[in-house]
Amino acid sequence: MERLAIHPQGPTFSRIVSGAWRWHTVSQDTVAKLIHTSLDEGITTFDHADIYGDHGNEEIFGNVLRKNLGLRSKMELVSKCGIKFSSLKRPKTWVKHYDTSSEHIIWSVENSLKMLGTDRLEALLIHRPDPLMNPTEVAEAFSQLKQDGKVLHFGVSNFTPSQFAMLQSFLSFPLITNQIEISLSRVDPLFNGDLDLLMQHKTSAMAWSPLSGGKLNANDREMFSKASKYNASYSQLSLAWLLRHPSVIFPVIGTTKPERITEGAKAIDIKLDRQDWFEMLQWATGREVA
Ligand SMILES: NC(=O)c1ccc[n+]([C@@H]2O[C@H](COP(=O)([O-])OP(=O)(O)OC[C@H]3O[C@@H](n4cnc5c(N)ncnc54)[C@H](OP(=O)(O)O)[C@@H]3O)[C@@H](O)[C@H]2O)c1
After folding, report:
1. Span from the CA of 264 to the centroid of ligand 1 (angstroms)
2. Domains, the chain
3. How far is the CA of 128 from the centre of ligand 1 (A)?
4. What is the pLDDT at residue 219?
5. Cα atoms in the Cβ-side hemisphere of radius 13 Å centred on 173
6. Ligand 1 pocket: which of 237, 260, 266 to mutate (most atoms <8 Å of CB)?
């Protein structure tokens, strides 16, 4: 598996990333298998958030690290913060909201480190744009976390290009990614400036739900026939379509099945022809390019 610096001053990530959002739906043993299979396939980067699995998935993942002391050094950990919702684990929250206060960011990272059983995150992302975000406070929290060695790099998720540029202007170090939804069922970022801005900032998107969260495209029959041309599966072809983009997208796959991690990892070897890429875009949008 290819490994690349996501930004010239940023961390090196595996080109395909394993996302832990759905991992509370399987057993602790299966989570261990998902981690080991990812690493065996060269997928060394893992995507988390404080809230995944009702604030439980980081701990499930951390249990595997606590049992296998050598594992942590073989991986990069990304987590997110900023979303709060009502839960038995968060009894003081009564309404879903965003919190990007300095106090919450620092508290959330310290909690993530405890749950994951690690002393640092390779990257922390602000999960969603917060209409009450004070960029000076975010910059202070990031600087403090960086200075303490608790977070090595910072990024955002689901930010518009102007929100990204605005926050970047308050920081003395680069935002290393914007994690956004990109797939054959969400091609907007290729045209709405999301990817352009990241290229301008010499960084890359992490693409969440790169397989549309498992919902197959309407043109399945054509996709399957295209897949057979490449001796690939539908999901491998869908990932190859993202990997072909010159902005160097890092897809974050979310399967809970180890064998599907192995399957997805092979997408890296598929080099899509330009016309096949455009034909898939046409199927995705339902129209020819102008
Ligand atoms: N930043 C954000 O706001 C945000 C939002 C959502 C997600 N994320 C991140 O993105 C990651 C991926 O999201 P996602 O889970 O929606 O991604 P995905 O890879 O598009 O979808 C995974 C889903 O597709 C199903 N699936 C069906 N056929 C599959 C196949 N052949 N190969 C692989 N999966 C197949 C999986 O089921 P099985 O489990 O049965 O294989 C699983 O339910 C999350 O884990 C999280 O880290 C971030």
Report:
1. 11
2. 3-285 (3.20.20.100)
3. 18
4. 61
5. 23
6. 260
